[in-house]
Every structure is written in structure tokens, then in C-alpha cells.
Write a structure and sequence with these properties.
Helices cover 28% and strands 21% of the residues. With 567 residues, it is of the alpha/beta class.
């Protein structure tokens, strides 16, 4: 809500707080501090003092534990509260901060000359826009340009910041400040622009995956039903990846002839675009829509194109002043959480991720809490588990400790992490499939049985290289390589060595399965927004309520082990 009448409504509070602020101005408390510039980044020049930056402030949630336990209960098939998802107003009421707390923070912003017109309160988040010189005074810090050479991006960041001591208990974090992570596609290379050969197609499903292969392998029936608003399939698009209708239509004509009347809509979020004439790589976006929609019969599919990432550095030293510094996850999550219940997707597929260790725990916890809020409202959120196997082998905290390092958001316990398999007979875990244990989130109770079984098999191997008490992932695994995909008029094949390599393939079509599973529930009279019971909670109790759907669960950590069929 905008604050046009803030001063009139809160005049006494404003005057009292400004007096208090003047009295304690020298008393600040540090919120976050990095010991050094994160690996892969280097510090550059100072930005212009007049440059405007949009900031997001998260208010501390003191009832988050109670809320998250409620989410676990309503998502667990054998719990009495299973399927009793919350409405938007219920979630907002349960998690909203005290008006007195948000008022204190807003008054502080106003006392620091933050324009009232730029301040916006959205649940337990407050956004505001301010110049570099102003925010440096407010947060007792200095901002710099930081350069990331591998992906050729730069960002305006700081290594630490502080807030008034009286407000410190109420402020969880402020973004963008110390957040240096890089959002990446969960695949390793671009599509090789060459036709798929007749020999490749003739080799069969062991070496070439098409929609028909997946239908046969996992027992997915062709069905024809009327599309329902409750069966919305959402596909996330970031990093200027655009789903191209021309490629989609042609792919269906070749590989999903019974679905040629299918389509998808596009929703743009915070500067996202629908550029149907883009000449940039759109393999990921095209792969996602081509397989998700060709397998999920008659669903209402939407591609959500979200803007915001570190700008590309051409032959200049600084980014364009108009470049957005908004972070895609945060902007997308706020968009979804503000939607009415009937406009939410039932399933949301994501093929993007970051290294968990590149993100501060405060950011990871804050955004995972937003995923939990979507789950509470009945949205099944799927993320690729990543393409780095168990992850990098060295911590970035200065200790240089050898460690298996997880990815995020796959490590969030309120999303379903999808690992990768290959081959048909037998089907095996693919070597690059991400998996491991979170260094931030403890293992949720629903994983206890599966993880204990894994540890029994593992014995003492790799002791000390992972967090044995952390949330394990991936939750499920499915075919993730050798997919035929069309991009910019050419067909190519995902694969181990030459073209696209990545777990995102498995994530997007598993999302299609999840959408079909929801429809299956509704046919037999289950809850309108019954959670996709297969993942991750069915892993604990060993059941799948399905309509001829088979799915695979990875062995929590995908290190040379075959997936296990859930029965």
C-alpha cells in the first residue's frame, strides 16, 4: 500500500521516533558482514552518489517455525490436515508483522529522507528507492561495483551494513547489499545448431528421448479433458530466455501430433519480456514448454517471464544506470504471493539455481520462507537439482575445507528437487545430477526414513564431506538427457558431451506429471488443490496415489547410485 497519508495518520509516532532516533543515532548494530569479497568477484570503482537503487527489507518473522510446521502437516498425505491448504488472506494474516514494527521501520526510512512515494509495504517486506549517498548514510557502509568475470556481470554491492540498534531485532535483511550469488541455468552448454539425424531417431529411446518415449516409460496416458483453472501449469523464465511460439508449434507437429491445438500464454513480471524475435539462446525456455505441455494434456500453461539480473558487461566499466538490480526469485515470489488463490498455478517448474554457499543464510531463509507460503496455498514448486553432482569441493569461507556443497533453491525443504536419470533398460542416475545435503536447512522429519536408509547403505564413505543433519536432495529423479528440442528453427539433442547437458530436462516434464497427478486427484474427488503427493512426502511413507504414473526417487545424494522406484 502507498503511504500518501502516512504523516497525517502517524504524526505523533513520527515526532516521537525522530526524537528517539536523534538520541541513539550513534548506536548501530551490524546486520551482515562478509569477511572478504566472494570467490569469483573483484571490487571495482564506486558508483555515482546520485544513482538510485531499489531496496527490499525483510521484517523478522517470529512465528515462522509455527507456520512452516503447518505447511508440513497440510502437505503430508497421512496427516489429518493433509490438503487443507490456506487462502491468501490466511497466510498474510498469520505472517504479517505487527503494525507497530512496520511503522517504526517506515518512520526510520522517512527520517532518513527516503521519499514516502517510494516506500511500499507488502506483507513482511518493505521496498524503498534511495540514492547511493543516502543509503550509505542510513546503513553506515560503502557501496562499490563488483565484477564477476566468468559470467561477465557486475553489481553494486557492499560487504556489510548496520541499522539502528533499536530496529535490529525487527530487520532480517536488506537487499541488494551483500547478496552476490549468480542465477544460472541448470545446464552446461548451448544447443548445437544441427538437425537430428535419422540414425539418432532410429536408435530408439535409449539414446533419443521424445514425448512418446516418456509416455511409454512412465505410463502416461493420452487423455482429453476440458482445461480447468485449477490445473494451471506455470513455467518460470529468467535470464532473457523466451519461449518461442513458432518453435513450439513446429515441435508439436513433429513429436506430439495429438497436441497440435495446445498453446501457452505469457505473463511478464517486473520488466520481463515476451520477445518472439529474440536471436539469443532460448533452448531452456523452449525445452521447458515443449515437453511440459506435450505431456500435460489440456492444461492451462503459462510461461512467466521475469526480468532482473546482473547486467552483461560489454566493453565498458560500469552498467547502464537504468539496469534493474531486482533479484528474479524475490520479484517473482512477491508477484505470485499477491495473486488471488484462483489465479495461482497448481505446479510451478523452475530450471534455475545458484550455489547455496554463494548466498548468505539470511537471504536463503527469507526466500525459502516465501516458497513455503506458496506451498501453503497449494502450489507444488519443482526445481532442478543442478548439474554439478554433489557440488564443488572447497568452501568459500576462507577455510578452504574440502566439502560437498549443495545448490539452492533445490535445498529449500518446501520445494521438490528433481534429479536426473538416463537410459531405459536399465535406468540409472546420470553422473552430473545434483544432490547432497543443505548447509543451511536441517533435515525435515518427512525425510528421516529415506535418509536413514541411505546412510545405512553409505556407511562411513565420505564422512565429513557433507552435513549429515541437513535437508537431503534430490527428492525425485527422472529422465534428464538426450531430449530432442527445437530452438530458432533448428532441432538438436540434449546429451552428455555435445549439446545441452542438464537436469532441467527432467524438472520440466516432471512438472507436467505433477499437473496430471493433480487432475487425477480431482477425478476421484480429492481436495481441489491437493498437493502432488508423490514429492517429496510420499518418499517417507512409500505410497503414490496415481493415475498410471510412475516416478523415481533418487537416493538422496546422486553419487553413482541408481534411483529407486516408489511403489
Amino acid at each position: 500500500m502507498r503511504l500518501q497519508f502516512f504523516f497525517l495518520q502517524n504524526l505523533v509516532l513520527v515526532l516521537c521516533y525522530i526524537r528517539l532516533t536523534l538520541a541513539i543515532d550513534s548506536s548501530y548494530h551490524q546486520v551482515e558482514q562478509l569477511d572478504k569479497v566472494p570467490d569469483g568477484w573483484s571490487r571495482g570503482d564506486r558508483p555515482l552518489a546520485s544513482k538510485l537503487i531499489k531496496f527490499q527489507l525483510a521484517i523478522t518473522q517470529y512465528n515462522a517455525g509455527e507456520f512452516e510446521q503447518k505447511v508440513i502437516e497440510l502437505s503430508t498425505p497421512d496427516h489429518v490436515n493433509y490438503g487443507q491448504h490456506m487462502k491468501r488472506d490466511e497466510v498474510q494474516k498469520l505472517l504479517s508483522s505487527s503494525p507497530a514494527v512496520s511503522d517504526q521501520i517506515i518512520v526510520w526510512l522517512l527520517s532518513e529522507n527516503v521519499p514516502a512515494s517510494s516506500i511500499n509495504l507488502n506483507g513482511h517486506w518493505i521496498s524503498f528507492t534511495v540514492s547511493i549517498s543516502q543509503v550509505e548514510k542510513m546503513l553506515k557502509t560503502k557501496f562499490f561495483y563488483f565484477h564477476q568475470q566468468v559470467q561477465q556481470t557486475i553489481a553494486i554491492r557492499t560487504l556489510g551494513y548496520s541499522v539502528p540498534r533499536a530496529l535490529h531485532p525487527y530487520i532480517q535483511l536488506i537487499l541488494p547489499t551483500t547478496r552476490f550469488g549468480n542465477l544460472i541455468l541448470q545446464r552446461r552448454s548451448t544447443l548445437e545448431q544441427k538437425p537430428v539425424t535419422a540414425e539418432q531417431l532410429a536408435a530408439g529411446c535409449n539414446t533419443t528421448i521424445t514425448p512418446d518415449c516418456l509416455r511409454d516409460l512412465y505410463g502416461i496416458d493420452n487423455t482429453t479433458t476440458r482445461p480447468e483453472w485449477r490445473n494451471r501449469l506455470g513455467i518460470s523464465g529468467f535470464l532473457e530466455q523466451y519461449a518461442l511460439h513458432a518453435d513450439f508449434d513446429e515441435f508439436l507437429r513433429h513429436y506430439a501430433k495429438s497436441h497440435t491445438d495446445s498453446n501457452f500464454s505469457v505473463v511478464t513480471i517486473k520488466g520481463g519480456q515476451d520477445n518472439q524475435h529474440s536471436m539469443s539462446d532460448s533452448v531452456e525456455a523452449n525445452l521447458d514448454v515443449q515437453y511440459s505441455i506435450s505431456l500435460a494434456d489440456e492444461v492451462l500453461a503459462t510461461f512467466y517471464s521475469t526480468g532482473g539480473r546482473g547486467p552483461v558487461v560489454p566493453e565498458i566499466n560500469h552498467p547502464d544506470p537504468t539496469e534493474s538490480t531486482n533479484k528474479p526469485y524475490l520479484e517473482q515470489l512477491h508477484y505470485f504471493l499477491n495473486l488471488s488463490d484462483e489465479n495461482l498455478p497448481a505446479v510451478l517448474s523452475n530450471s534455475y539455481g545458484e550455489d547455496e554457499q554463494s548466498l548468505l543464510p539470511s537471504y536463503v531463509n527469507a526466500t525459502c520462507s516465501l516458497f513455503a507460503q506458496l506451498a501453503a496455498r497449494g502450489v507444488s514448486i519443482l526445481f532442478s537439482s543442478g548439474d554439478e553432482g554433489p557440488g564443488s569441493c572447497v568452501r568459500n569461507d576462507g577455510t578452504n575445507q574440502t566439502r560437498s556443497l549443495p545448490g539452492y533453491p533445490a535445498s529449500c525443504p518446501f520445494v521438490t528437487a528433481v534429479g536426473g536419470t538416463y537410459g531405459i533398460n536399465p535406468e540409472r542416475a546420470v553422473y552430473f545430477s545434483g544432490g547432497g545435503f543443505s548447509e543451511v536447512f536441517p533435515r525435515p522429519q518427512y525425510q528421516d526414513q529415506a535418509v536413514k536408509g541411505y546412510f545405512h547403505h553409505l556407511a562411513s564413505r565420505w564422512n565429513g564431506l557433507y552435513n549429515a543433519t541437513g535437508r537431503g536432495y534430490s527428492d525425485v529423479s527422472a529422465q534428464a538427457t538426450s531430449f530432442i528440442v527445437r530452438d530458432h528453427g533448428d532441432y538438436g539433442q540434449t546429451g552428455f558431451t555435445d549439446i545441452v547437458l542438464g537436469n532441467s530436462s527432467g524438472c520440466n516434464w516432471t512438472a507436467a506429471n505433477a499437473t496430471l497427478q493433480l487432475r487425477c486427484h480431482r477425478r476421484v474427488g480429492s481436495s481441489d488443490r491437493a498437493r502432488y503427493t508423490l514429492v517429496p512426502y510420499a518418499c517417507e511413507i512409500g505410497i503414490v496415489r496415481r493415475c498410471k504414473l510412475t516416478a523415481y526417487r533418487s537416493s538422496v545424494m546422486s553419487i553413482g547410485m541408481s534411483p529407486t522406484i516408489i511403489t
